[in-house]
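Researcher: Here's the sequence for the chain we discussed earlier.
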Amino acid sequence: MSQKRTKRQEAIRRRNIFLSVCAVAIAVAVAVLVFSISAISKSFNSPNKNSDNPTSSNISSEAKPKEPYIVGSATVVNTGDILIHSTVLDGAKTEDGNYDFSSFFKSTKKYFKAADLSVINLEVTFGGTESGKFSGYPVFNSPDSLADTIKEAGLNLVLTSNNHSYDTGLFGLKRTAEVLKNKGIAFTGTKQTPDDPAYIVKNVNGVKLGIVNYTYETACSTAGRKALNGRIMAAEANNLINTFSYDKIGNFYTEAENVIKAMKNDGADAIVFYMHWGNEYQLGPNTWQKTIAQKLCNLGVDVIVGGHPHVLQPMEIIHSEDSQNSTVCIYSTGNAVSNQRQELMDSCPSGHTEDGVLFYYTFDKYSNGTTVLSSVDLVPIWVDKYKGGAQYQYQMYPLENAKDGANKFGLTGSAATKSEKSYNRTKALMEEGLIKCQKHLGAQERFAVPTKK
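Model: Thanks. This is the structure I predict for it:
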């Protein structure tokens, strides 16, 4: 009996070994099969780099390309012409013989500092005492402390090409650039030396803005020379200031095209032209402004900001003749600070010379390399002239609403009334064009942009 049991046990043992081996073999085969299916599945669901037309059906959710996203956004605020007339100059003079212009920007400083870039047109020169005493119109020579006030207010880009750039001659033209350089204020429109660039490409929050400033020339009968305000400039000045001649407008178009190419070669994502043009005290653009704006649009300019008329002129969206580009153009941003008061202006008694704006534009740059103009807006400005001590003082007031003069800044009497009238004048002149531009951009429609928190 024991011998039979032993044989039987041996048979059972061998059968169990066989079954174990089979189980292991089956497990290995299953594992190999699962691995192969997984590998095939991964290979099938991976993007095929050699495929010209990959579809969503053969791309896994993890491998789907992401939509372009914003990698940089630059908001620029612009204001108008700063003109230090004699009355303005007298009001800034202190007892110690220095000059204090800080009252100008007390209420607008937070707007300038909140923006990524803040721009003003400097329609004076820093000719120094070497050019004689400080003076207002018709020869603007302002103290260097004005540059300090501009910088302290958060204005970090100054436009220097205008019809008063040569008021203190070649020396003053160069010295103005030198003062701004020494104080660390960026500028464009004029140069200190011919080797300085005619434009700037400024990196603003990862968006590279190509910016250039031009002014119109007046007629000049001297061959090879230019003139501003009827003043014939030294030959050396020809290459120190960006100008254009209405009589030789083709030359300007060629130069503009070359400048645009140069800015793009320097990495510019967007192109902005600041133009000193038009007729003084006219509330609309003239034929030349419209013609030049259309040509700049055709050349691919994204934004045009105008100055010189000393009153506001409307804004509009312009489309290139080949339908490949659209440009937002504000023909004039009016005055920032001046003594061009309603009661003094026989040529413009409507009060528009007291009005200006903070004009905003924003560019967004996307992860795929494209840059788009995403929004524009403006805040009306009224300049108050009031008695401060023995002289008059001047202050810019941003008016996001008609009653802000009284309710926000505490203005009373005629100042409150005039600020409200100024707001209503600006809204009547600017709102229609602003809304059309905002609709084109798909931006929110509003008449006043809030400051950043």
